[in-house]
Structures are given as C-alpha cells and as structure tokens.
C-alpha cells in the first residue's frame, strides 16, 4: 500500500496536441518530493513515477535554479514562486529567502 502524501503542493498535467507533461510536488512529513513525466503519441507516462526526495532547503534551491516549469511559458516564474511560497510557509528558511529576494531587488 502506498502512503498518501501529507500535502500536495502542485499537481499539473499540461497537454499539447499529441504530447503532455505531468509534474507533482508533494510533502511527506518533513521531506518533499518532485516527480515529472512526459508522453507523446507513441509513448505514455508508464514507468516514470520516480520521485526525487528533497529537504525544504534543497527543494527551494532546485526550483530557483532549474527550469522545471518551462511548459508553463509566461506563467512559469509565478508558478515557481507559488510553490516556493508554500514550502517556505512551513519552513524556517523563510527569513533567508526573503533576505535574498530583497538583496536581489536592491542590486537592480
């Protein structure tokens, strides 16, 4: 039996004309999991459920560093910020993140 997550931060399926992308980010206790998959008209999502485990700090770093929501185009940055906000709401790293964001704004 598979344990249900304590919280699903994001579950998205983006479908194109013949392909699609799936992304799920969830929390189980104090660990976070990121899993993604894609398909085309020839191949399905089967066999792609392989969640990567993160601490809150490492998930925030990975999301800020990567282009995980490229398929969201113009909404990618807002989607990433929303997920990071949900992680930070439960974490003690909120202060550090806010400081770094303010520091970036000062340097503009």
How is this structure best summarized?
By secondary structure, the chain is of the alpha+beta class. It contains three helices and four strands; from the N terminus they run ββββααα. The mean pLDDT is 79.
Describe the structure.
- The mean pLDDT is 79.
- The chain is globular and about 40 Å long.
- The longest helix is centred in the C-terminal third of the chain and has 14 residues, at 76-89.
- With 108 residues, it is an alpha+beta fold.
- The protein has one domain.
- It has 3 helices and 4 strands; from the N terminus they run ββββααα.
- A hairpin with a 2-residue loop joins strand 2 and strand 3.
- What is the H/E order? EEEEHHH
Rounded to the nearest angstrom, the distance between the terminal CA atoms is 51 Å
Give the radius of gyration: 15 Å
The averaged pLDDT comes out at: 79
Report helical residue fraction.
25-40%
Widest β-sheet, arrangement of strands: 1-2-3-4
- Domain count, please report it: 1
Coarse structural class: alpha+beta
């Amino acid at each position: 039996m598979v344990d249900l997550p304590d919280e699903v931060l994001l579950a998205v399926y983006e479908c194109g004309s013949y392909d699609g992308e799936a992304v799920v980010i969830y929390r189980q206790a104090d660990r976070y999991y990121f899993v993604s998959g894609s398909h085309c008209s020839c191949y399905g999502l089967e066999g792609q459920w392989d969640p990567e485990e993160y601490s809150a700090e490492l998930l925030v770093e990975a999301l800020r560093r990567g282009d995980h929501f490229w398929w969201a185009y113009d909404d990618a940055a807002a989607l990433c910020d929303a997920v990071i906000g949900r992680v930070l709401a439960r974490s003690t790293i909120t202060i550090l993140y806010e400081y770094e964001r303010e520091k970036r704004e000062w340097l503009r």
